[in-house]
């Protein structure tokens, strides 16, 4: 173990929680442990349940957390969890797994489980020449600290009823996405495409009036469940108002976005909501550009949503398509002052 004095350890803990954002916290954890323990390498892996747009079945993958703060990490190498027996053992036992090198001079591998509310959510992997118990204990203590802090962050950033991201975290995450678009190389610009959809439950007021607010909350929970089951793990799902939700689809073109949103509309339409029966949703969609602001993006999606509401509901409409068809007029922003 690296010789660490108490002030240095406390400074390390303080640095860990400088940024109230989960990915930044994960990166800080890796960098901190690299300074505090004797290790050849320290890496952090998230478990992602990924479902491709056109696929029905999802698989659990390991994705290494990068050292940058870019929004889009879809380019990271994917490791199929079921094909990694050592990680699977750690996942199932929820305890440290020590993997012998098997080769003279090669490092040992220590796989620590990262625990969340519903079991293992990732792994901390340390490669070291020797098994120094104090180092592994230090890593386990830091993981426990980080787990509790992440629970606090989730409590602050997520809607308490549905568990989706809340309005408070919407502006921050979408702004980071927009900034990441501005940093994309021209040659990769056609590969990076995000769109935002506003989802609104049709006639939700009638549900509250006819069945009461408790049943209204039950409808919201079922609606959020439909979102979690339909969209991919790395799409962003928000509840931004009473019956209003937002989805940000990552790396999809117009055609695929249309397929995904229509599929979700049909999932809601055919879902049985207890006591209430059938519920439908109206959906307005827009694409996100590198010079946008979160407020402008959601305003365009809202315009498409209002168009749907005025033309029968239970439909999907894209703002850009409506403008091309002359059904909506494009708003012009004349100066930056008007945005504020």
- Radius of gyration in whole Å, from Cα? 23 Å
In order across it, which strands form the biggest sheet? Answer: 3-2-1-6-5-4
What is the CATH class designation of the largest domain? Alpha Beta
CATH architecture term of the largest domain: 2-Layer Sandwich
* Chain-averaged pLDDT: 83
User: How much of the sequence is in beta strands?
Assistant: 15-25%
Q: CATH H level of the largest domain: which superfamily?
A: Reverse transcriptase/Diguanylate cyclase domain
What is the overall number of helices? 11
Morphology call: elongated
Q: Could you tell me the number of beta strands?
A: 11
Helical content class: 40-55%
Major sheet summary line: 6 strands, antiparallel
Per CATH, what is the topology of the largest domain?
Alpha-Beta Plaits
The secondary structure category is alpha+beta
Outline:
This protein has 340 residues and is α+β, with helices and mostly antiparallel strands. Helix content is 43%, strand content 21%.
Topology:
Layout: H1 6-16, H2 22-36, E1 41-50, E2 59-64, E3 78-80, H3 85-93, E4 97-99, E5 108-116, E6 119-128, H4 133-157, H5 167-182, E7 194-201, H6 204-211, H7 213-230, E8 236-239, E9 244-250, H8 254-270, E10 281-287, H9 294-310, E11 316-318, H10 319-324, H11 336-339
Parallel strand pairs: 10-11
Antiparallel strand pairs: 1-2, 1-6, 2-3, 4-5, 5-6, 7-9, 7-10, 8-9
């Amino acid at each position: 173990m690296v010789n660490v004095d108490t002030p240095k350890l406390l400074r390390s803990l303080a640095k860990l929680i400088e940024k109230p954002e989960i990915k930044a916290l994960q990166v800080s954890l890796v960098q901190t442990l690299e300074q505090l323990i004797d290790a050849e390498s320290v890496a952090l892996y998230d478990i992602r349940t990924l479902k491709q747009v056109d696929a029905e079945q999802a698989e659990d993958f390991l994705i290494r957390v990068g050292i940058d703060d870019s929004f889009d990490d879809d380019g990271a190498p994917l490791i199929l969890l079921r094909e990694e027996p050592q990680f699977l053992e750690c996942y199932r036992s929820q305890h440290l797994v020590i993997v012998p090198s098997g080769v003279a001079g090669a490092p040992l591998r220590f796989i620590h489980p990262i625990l969340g509310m519903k079991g293992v959510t990732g792994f901390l992997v340390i490669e070291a020449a020797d098994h120094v118990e104090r180092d592994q204990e230090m890593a386990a203590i830091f993981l426990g600290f980080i787990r509790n802090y992440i629970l606090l962050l989730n409590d602050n950033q997520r809607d308490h009823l549905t568990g989706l991201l809340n309005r408070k975290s919407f502006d921050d995450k979408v702004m980071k996405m927009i900034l990441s678009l501005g940093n994309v190389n021209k040659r990769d610009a056609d590969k990076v495409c995000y769109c935002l959809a506003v989802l609104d439950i049709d006639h939700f007021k009638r549900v509250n009036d006819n069945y009461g607010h408790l049943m209204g909350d039950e409808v919201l929970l079922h609606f959020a469940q439909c979102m979690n089951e339909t969209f991919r793990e790395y799409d962003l799902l928000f509840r931004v108002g009473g019956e209003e939700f937002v989805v940000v689809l990552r790396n999809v073109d117009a055609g695929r976005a249309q397929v995904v949103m229509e599929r979700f509309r049909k999932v809601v339409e055919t879902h049985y909501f207890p006591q209430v029966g059938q519920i439908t949703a109206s959906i307005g969609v827009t694409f996100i550009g590198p010079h946008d602001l979160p407020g402008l993006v959601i305003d365009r999606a809202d315009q498409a949503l209002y168009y749907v509401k005025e033309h029968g509901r239970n439909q999907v409409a894209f703002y850009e398509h409506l403008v091309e068809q002359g059904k909506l007029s494009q708003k012009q922003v004349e100066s930056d002052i008007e945005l504020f």
